[in-house]
Predict the structure.
Amino acid sequence: MAMLLSDPFDALFNFQQALDAFRTSGWLGAGPSGGGAYPPLNVFRKGDDIVIITEVPGVRKEDLQVQVKGNTIRIAGRKSVQYGEQASVHRRERMAGSFDRAVSVPVEIDGDKVRAECRDGILALYLSRAERDKPKSIAIS
Amino acid sequence: MAKSQALEVQEKKELVSKEEKTVPARYFVPNTDIFETEDALIVVMEIPGVAKEDIAIDLENDALRVEAKIDHGHYDGLEPLYTEYNVGHFARAFSLSSKIDRQQISAELADGILTLTLKKAKEAMPRRIAIV
């Protein structure tokens, strides 16, 4: 089975299945400072670190604000949708508005090492787990 | 639309297409705005995570087809802990009612937004008729 899973054509499909499987995960408790549910987040683990990825198409980097305090991350911003003047609209599916969301991750974060990247409408936050929070291996004597 | 309006999550729509893809991966339908100006039809699509070189735009027999592929290699080594949306390629097709000048289609990608400007063909432009 492991051989089958490594098939590159199935890689995306398997990844999609994996993403669906974690839809009901209770890993991320709702933050106390709540806010809205936009933008939707996916949270991943990469080694000891946490990566939060979210889709924010149409939000410019300068309209995006990311703050970290303790283990709470706040993502706020504004998305605007513009139509040219004298344009008649055929179809309108994109939404505009502001958003403000805070989530708390159940691990300790090193606030100084948080890195945010925004490219092609995807915002990725790399959170490093605080050194003192990392699990230690205990040598068995 | 009020500026202060709070954004709501739009659940991604999965593509239900007549033809099936040979690869089992799921496709999504990008949220799209279409508007018309005097000389062009403008199509704006949200395709977060797609690089410029992975977009295919096709106009054939008045059918506009856009396929945008994400690079899921970015997710290598990431283990999901909690998810609220799924990721996948995007595809959408529209049949156009107005005549388009094929030579003058331009596309632009910024912040995950693809903007297609389809210039109307000369004969389809509104013409003012002078009354003599």
Observations:
- Residues 52 and 110 of chain B are 9 Å apart (CA to CA).
- The first strand of chain B starts at residue 13 and ends at 14.
- Strands of chain B lie at 13-14, 27-29, 32-36, 40-46, 50-60, 63-70, 79-83, 89-95, 100-110, 113-120.
